[in-house]
Amino acid sequence: MNIPNKITVARILLIPLFLFIMLAPLNLGGLVIGTMVLPVSHLIGALLFIVAASTDWVDGYYARKYNLVTNLGKFLDPLADKLLVSAALVTLVQFDLAPAWMVVVIISREFAVTGLRLLLAEGGEVSAAKMLGKIKMWAQVVAISALLLHNFPFEFIGIPFDMISLWVAVIFTVVSGWDYFAKNKQVFAQSK
Questions:
Q1: Chain-wide mean pLDDT for the chain?
Q2: Does this model's pTM top 0.85?
Q3: Cα–Cα distance, 145 to 46 (Å, whole number)
Q4: What is the pLDDT of residues 65-108, one digit of tens each?
Q5: Is the separation of the CB atoms in 21 and 45 below 8 Å?
Q6: Where are the transmembrane segments (predicted)?
Q7: Which domains does the chain have, with CATH numbers?
Q8: Which stretch of DSSP H or E encloses residue 39?
């Protein structure tokens, strides 16, 4: 296993730590920032999420720069992204920080694309992430980070950046999923 794949595995291993910080009854208190209270566990969870999500860029950059792109990496990298995003989104629903229907749309798309990737792999094709998928991932990361931080610092100027960014993430999630299926529709013709 090369270094980019190890970084991807590290991203997967950060997920249980993120969940523990967010969901364990640690009672770390809250930071009072103006009129809002940001739970310390949410701040730590947000920072951990951002670090974990940033490794997506690091492993991809390293793999391309040193020509270490592997089929395992093409498979593990999007899987790690989906696991991280799904864990964070379910946590946000738990705290009533994100509407459940939006989370269901995002996670459903992730499962559908994963299923399509498995069909492609069965045919010997391993598909790397495309640009729309990368934009989708970063839109999700921005939205989740804003939601975990309770819309800080935008809360003070009255801009619902967290919800705006979640809507952008949902739109890119749907569009990139549609694009992925449209470009790989031959899989369904072959499986008849």
A1: 91
A2: yes
A3: 6
A4: 998 888 888 888 888 999 999 999 999 999 999 999 999 999 99
A5: yes
A6: 12-34, 40-58, 79-95, 164-182
A7: 3-186 (1.20.120.1760)
A8: strand 36-39
Q: Which stretches within 95-157 are classed as H helix?
A: 100-122, 131-148
First to last CA, the chain: 36
Going by their DSSP bridges, the two strands 36-39 and 30-33 should be labelled as antiparallel
Region class of 71: left (phi > 0), else alpha (psi between -120 and 50), else beta: alpha
Q: Which of 53, 52, 76 is nearest to 4 (CA)?
A: 76
Q: Which amino acid is present at 38? A: L
Token pair 């992204």 is found at 81
Cα 175–chain centre separation: 16
Instruction: Using DSSP, state whether 26 is helix, strand or coil.
Output: coil
Q: How confident is the model at residue 192 (pLDDT cuts 50, 70, 90)?
A: low
Rounded to whole angstroms, how far apart are CA atoms 104 and 166? 13
What percentage of the chain carries pLDDT values higher than 70? 95
